[in-house]
Amino acid sequence: MAQTRITVTIDDDQHAAISEIAEVEGRGLSDIVREALADLIASRWPEDIQGTAKRAIVNEGMTNQEALEEVLKRHGDRASTSLASIAWYRTKLRKVHENVRSDAQIKLDRKKAAADKKKRG
To answer: What is this structure's pTM?
Structure first.
């Protein structure tokens, strides 16, 4: 998976804690931070909500906005997700599912289909 470098300022006590964890586990700080971020994302976007988003994006070919609406409809207040979360998840899914179209491509395909339908009468 492609990676992006970021710079983050953290408190001294947070740095000390992750440094200690890294030393005890014999791992790098970057690995510890990536693991912590993965845990945070998973805790805020539980598996069942991810499943709804995945079905909406992969199986039903919804746009990001439609997928977000589907997640909120099915999971309500429990789904603390956003359009940015759906976009992130679509990008992740596109890396492993060749049939997942981008949000822009879905919109373009729909626009073309509507124009073709209009031409045909």
So the answer is: 0.58
